[in-house]
Amino acid sequence: MKLLVTNDDGFDAPGIASLANVAGPLGDLVVVAPALPQSGIGHQVTAYDPILVAADDTNRYRVHGTPADCSRIGLREFLPDADWVIAGINNGGNLGVDVYMSGTVAAAREAALLGYRAMAVSHYIVRDRPLDWALTERRITPILKMLLEMDLPQNHFWNVNLPHPTHDRESLPHTFCDVDSGPLDVRFERQGDHYSYSGDYHARPRQSGRDVDVCFDGHIAISKVPLDVTNAR
Fold first, then answer.
1. Measured distance CA(77)–CA(233) in Å, rounded
2. Phi then psi for 216, rounded to 5 degrees?
3. Mean pLDDT per 10-residue section of the chain, whose length is 233 residues
4. Distance CA 24, CA 93 (A)
5. Domain limits for position 222
6. 232 found inside a domain
7. I need a surface site. Which of 80, 117, 171, 227 has the fewest CB within 10 A?
8. Is 197 a domain residue?
9. CA separation for the pair 116, 194 (Å, rounded)
10. How many domains does the chain fold into?
């Protein structure tokens, strides 16, 4: 199995190192990741300027561009016969409407648009609670193996979010669920002519049984996200 690995936190982020540790035994890896952090950049692509790509090592490339750029370049130049594109592990949740803003999710979406199977993997983090990446690796391993073996319809990709429970148990329940369509808590604090976002991500509204609710309740939330945008009949 040939796997293209990318992210939006940057080439040197601990999450992509953990993803490579988990995915490495499952297939042949090519890492194509942003040289610098690109969190929250969404599906931006570079169309009019050249993109600098530096080979860090064999099958490891630093891209001076966006996560979607990484998927494009990786799939067209370095691993055109990829079986899967896996983006992550993001340092923070990509739940609900985050899927529109997340560079991690955009990397998976771009791969799906190009006809490849793809998934985005993120880790919700409770405020002021440290993240144990070694434990995260043990928790995500069975989920990754399961999803790589499952059928995924064309024009869809997986969006996976790990919870952040207080216990250290390695096995976490998982739930297949829809993406929450509710808004984030959007508030600002004014300081002169400047406005600073002050919304509370952790107190965001929760639609029962959807990914925000599932993840906040301690389950790994797995959503099959469609690419098609159609009018309701």
1. 41
2. -65, -20
3. 98 98 97 96 97 95 98 98 98 97 98 98 95 98 98 96 97 98 94 95 95 98 92 58
4. 23
5. 2-226
6. no
7. 171
8. yes
9. 42
10. 1
DSSP helix/strand/coil, 224: strand
Could you give the CA distance from residue 176 to residue 209 in angstroms, rounded to a whole number?
Answer: 9
Euclidean distance between CA atoms 164 and 95, whole angstroms? 13
Q: Which residues contact 140 (CB under 8 A, 6 or more apart)?
A: 18, 22, 89, 121, 160, 162, 220
- Is the separation of the CB atoms in 91 and 59 below 8 Å? no
- Tell me phi and psi for residue 185, to 5 degrees: -75, 100
For residue 30, tell me if it sits in a domain. yes
| Rounded Cα gap, residues 71 and 112, in angstroms | 10
* Domain-embedded: residue 231: no
- Closest residue by Cα to residue 70 from 4, 165, 157, 162: 4
Helix (H, G, I), strand (E, B) or coil at 77: helix
CATH code for position 112: 3.40.1210.10
The pLDDT, as a whole number, for residue 232 is 56
> In what helix (H) or strand (E) does residue 69 lie, and over which residues does it extend?
helix 67-73
Q: What whole-number distance in Å separates Cα of residue 188 and Cα of residue 13?
A: 29
How far apart, in whole angstroms, are the C-alpha atoms of residue 117 and residue 233?
28
